[in-house]
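pls design
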């Protein structure tokens, strides 16, 4: 029987060692590539990060967020894909993620290393293991605008569309009216934040009030399309015939590498007189108050309360988290106290604790206290040790002194006048009880072993 078990264990050991010998870490690496090595200022540079493995992915890769100095980088959320790549004679599963970099500084720039976390099983295994890999740093060149270009309003785009709209018809205008103009610039291949604001020329017929622009972005194939909407309000303060000048927006086309421009034609206005000048002034005052309120709100947001670099909302979260932590700590301490109280109660009712009290009573030498504590201790000992009488335990004393000492103690317990006598041999009795406990435990163990041997010859 033992021989068969030994052979089976050896077979299992050899098979497991052979399996471990066939398991080795998966080959996994990542690369970062550009769609071009040289771009203009503001021109999008597409970065493709690819992760390869020699087994398979049990978890999709997680790409770290990095900052490119002198540029803005945006993740292309929909440009993630899985594919199979053949390298040599072996196929490798691969997952790609694309980013778009919009450089703003001329010269040589560097794309930092990406950190990628993923999971894949080892070769010969099946359970995914977390792996952390890094791409290499890559450099790219950023060229400046062509000579003679207005660099102050420089903007690159594949295409640009310039439109405008008004909140009311421009006929039948009179002094005191307020008209709102919306200028919309749609640039493909450019983020809205990179679209240069249009130059709004001054007018002779009134005042101009600019509202904050509206910026939106839409993801396209390999880049983003940005839209900038400028809102301009004109307060008509004079009557007569006037003209809003032509508006031109220039951009550098990345299609044909030439400078283009889009324009809005000049607009003629025929403003009728209005004898109610107070109305004009009131409208101007209301408009100024409205703008003042918007600026006040912006200032309040900009000057929000902060302490140690954290705003009110962050401090609220910290305080709430602290209170929750204190509440959990108090609950844990209360539960711990209850457990400790239960454990203390169980210990104070144990044989071990009462034997310790018996030792202390023996040291004090008071017969009455010793007899009482001896009864408390034996009540707890006999249940676990299965000893009915104290005299039966005394017979287990190898030195055969405990029986005589217990008889002497029993004589004192039956004579009231001797209970207050000094107990001189209390420590000896405790040592005898300890020896008897050890000897009784030893005999019980030998008896149990003989019992099991008789059951299993």
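designed seq:
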């Amino acid at each position: 029987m033992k021989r068969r078990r030994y052979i089976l264990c050896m077979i299992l050991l050899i098979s497991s060692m052979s399996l471990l010998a066939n398991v080795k870490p998966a080959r996994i690496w990542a690369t970062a590539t550009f769609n071009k090595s040289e771009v203009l200022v503001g021109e999008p540079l597409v970065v493709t990060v690819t992760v390869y493995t020699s087994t398979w992915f049990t978890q999709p890769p997680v790409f770290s967020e990095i900052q490119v100095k002198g540029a803005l980088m945006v993740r292309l959320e929909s440009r993630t894909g899985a594919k199979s790549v053949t390298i040599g004679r072996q196929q490798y599963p691969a997952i790609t993620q694309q980013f778009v970099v919009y450089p703003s500084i001329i010269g040589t720039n560097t794309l930092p290393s990406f950190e990628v976390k993923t999971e894949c099983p080892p070769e010969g295994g099946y359970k995914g293991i977390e792996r952390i890999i890094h791409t290499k740093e890559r450099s790219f060149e950023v060229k400046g605008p062509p000579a003679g270009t207005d660099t102050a309003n420089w903007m690159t785009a594949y295409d640009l569309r310039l439109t405008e709209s008004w909140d009311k018809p421009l006929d039948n205008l009179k002094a005191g009216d307020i008209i709102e103009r919306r200028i919309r610039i749609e640039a493909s291949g450019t983020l809205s934040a990179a679209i240069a604001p249009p130059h709004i020329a001054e007018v002779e017929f009134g005042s101009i009030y600019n509202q904050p622009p509206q910026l939106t972005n839409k993801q396209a194939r390999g880049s983003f399309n940005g839209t900038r909407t400028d809102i301009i309000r004109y307060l008509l303060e004079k009557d007569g015939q006037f003209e809003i000048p032509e508006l031109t927006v220039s951009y550098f086309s990345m299609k044909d590498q030439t400078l283009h421009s889009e324009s809005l034609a000049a607009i003629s206005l025929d403003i009728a007189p209005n004898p109610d000048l107070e109305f004009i002034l009131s409208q101007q005052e209301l408009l100024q108050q409205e703008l003042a309120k918007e600026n006040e709100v912006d200032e309040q947001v900009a000057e929000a309360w902060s302490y140690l670099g954290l705003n009110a909302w962050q401090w609220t979260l910290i305080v709430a988290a602290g209170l929750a932590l204190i509440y959990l700590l108090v609950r844990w301490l209360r539960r711990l106290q209850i457990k400790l109280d239960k454990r203390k109660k169980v210990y104070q009712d144990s044989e071990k604790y009462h034997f310790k009290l018996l030792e202390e009573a023996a040291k004090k030498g008071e017969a009455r206290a010793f007899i009482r504590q001896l009864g408390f201790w034996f009540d707890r000992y006999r249940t676990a040790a299965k000893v009915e009488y104290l005299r039966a335990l005394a017979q287990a004393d190898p030195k055969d002194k405990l029986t005589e000492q217990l008889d002497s103690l029993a004589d004192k317990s039956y004579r009231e006048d001797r209970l207050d006598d000094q107990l001189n041999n209390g420590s000896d009795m405790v040592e005898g009880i300890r020896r008897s406990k050890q000897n009784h435990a030893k005999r019980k163990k030998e008896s149990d072993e003989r019992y099991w041997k008789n059951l299993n010859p």
